[in-house]
Amino acid sequence: MSNSNRLRIAIQKGGRLSKDCQDLLKQLGVKLNLREQRLIAHSTNMPIDVLRVRDDDIPGLVMDGVCDLGIVGENVLVEVQAERERQGVPSEVNKLSKLDFGYCRLALAWPQELGARDKSWFEGKRIATTYPEILTQWLKREGINASTVMLTGSVEVAPRAGLSDAICDLVSTGATLEANGLIQGDTILESNACLIQNKDLQDADKLALINKLMPRLRGVRQAKESKYIMLHAPKNKLDEICEILPGSGQPTLLALAGNEEYVALHMVSSETLFWETMEQLKALGANSILVMPIEKMME
Ligand SMILES: Nc1ncnc2c1ncn2[C@@H]1O[C@H](COP(=O)(O)OP(=O)(O)OP(=O)(O)O)[C@@H](O)[C@H]1O
Ligand SMILES: O=P(O)(O)OC[C@H]1O[C@H](OP(=O)(O)OP(=O)(O)O)[C@H](O)[C@@H]1O
Ligand SMILES: [Mg+2]
């Protein structure tokens, strides 16, 4: 168990998730004294310490109570959980929230020159992966008898190097597969970054701090999805204009100095305005249409 009375959060030190994690903590109002080489960063305005580690270590640190919270890809979380379950080691965590970054999928791929293949082709083949537990479970579910070759990096070069017949690796844009002459097959897991909590956490002060941060997290996410919309609308077309604005329950209407026919309409929309909607608004006589980002929200 963490013996510090400061909330300990594990994040990835370097790599795909580290910048998003640091940005998220900043948006939550956590000020950090980050020094590149340091393992621990202390918050200067909250009783929080941030541990910067390899992403593979994050689930275990949270499961074992070394850290109270962690931000990690679901792919790594599921892999570590499966490995621990097989070994009979505690593997539960509370998943507090899925986050809106780190989206990728774990997919099968094979050399392009083989052309289209179905699942049965994998029978008896060697598949290189960093995720042997997830892959083995999938192969079992599908009734495919194939062997896994564990590689911690450069999985995409394994077929060319003669280490395997196919791979099972993370894909986002597909550029890595393409650059290595591989075709993407079945997706076996979709993943986002997520926020996890040690399931035995009982310290009242730490729980209170988490309860303070969670509404902020929801507020950050809601703000990202919402827009503040302002426009000038002809009074006689207000109903039609409101009808095409997404989520315009109770817009604010303001008089325009020296203009009896128009009003200013302000509203928070739960989604952005597409160009097509803006063109429709314009056709109804609206003008000065502004769509602005919202930084924070609290309802
Ligand atoms: N191409 C991608 N696009 C978006 N997210 C990705 C992508 N590749 C990986 N991720 C997510 O980011 C996480 C970290 O990826 P990264 O490549 O930095 O890991 P790593 O090389 O294992 O780093 P570490 O040194 O921390 O072990 C992955 O586990 C996954 O959840
Ligand atoms: O489909 P793409 O957009 O090309 O992304 C997929 C690649 O991204 C990840 O690696 P990363 O670039 O993070 O480097 P790493 O292999 O050193 O971890 C992943 O392991 C793939 O190799
Ligand atoms: Mg890693």
Protein model, in words:
The chain contains eight helices and 15 strands. The mean pLDDT is 95. The protein is flat and about 80 Å long. The chain is 28% helix and 32% strand. It is of the alpha/beta class and 299 residues long. The strands form three sheets. The chain has a six-stranded mixed β-sheet with strand order 2-3-1-4-11-5. A five-stranded mixed β-sheet has the order 8-7-9-6-10. The longest helix is centred in the C-terminal third of the chain and has 22 residues, at 204-225. It binds adenosine-5'-triphosphate, 1-O-pyrophosphono-5-O-phosphono-alpha-D-ribofuranose and magnesium ion. It is found in: Cytoplasm. GO terms for molecular function: ATP phosphoribosyltransferase activity. It catalyses: 1-(5-phospho-beta-D-ribosyl)-ATP + diphosphate = 5-phospho-alpha-D-ribose 1-diphosphate + ATP. Belongs to the ATP phosphoribosyltransferase family. Long subfamily. Its EC number is 2.4.2.17.
Spell out the blueprint of helices and strands.
Elements: E1 7-12, H1 18-27, E2 40-42, E3 48-53, H2 58-63, E4 69-73, H3 74-87, E5 93-98, E6 104-111, E7 126-129, H4 132-142, E8 147-150, E9 166-171, H5 175-179, E10 182-191, E11 193-198, H6 204-225, E12 227-234, H7 238-244, E13 252-256, E14 259-269, H8 275-283, E15 287-293
Parallel strand pairs: 1-3, 1-4, 7-8, 7-9
Antiparallel strand pairs: 2-3, 4-11, 5-11, 6-9, 6-10, 12-14, 12-15, 13-14
Adenosine-5'-triphosphate is lined by residues 12, 15-17, 54-56, 73, 75-76, 102-104, 170, 172, 191.
Pathway: Amino-acid biosynthesis; L-histidine biosynthesis; L-histidine from 5-phospho-alpha-D-ribose 1-diphosphate: step 1/9
Family: Belongs to the ATP phosphoribosyltransferase family. Long subfamily.
Cofactor: Mg(2+)
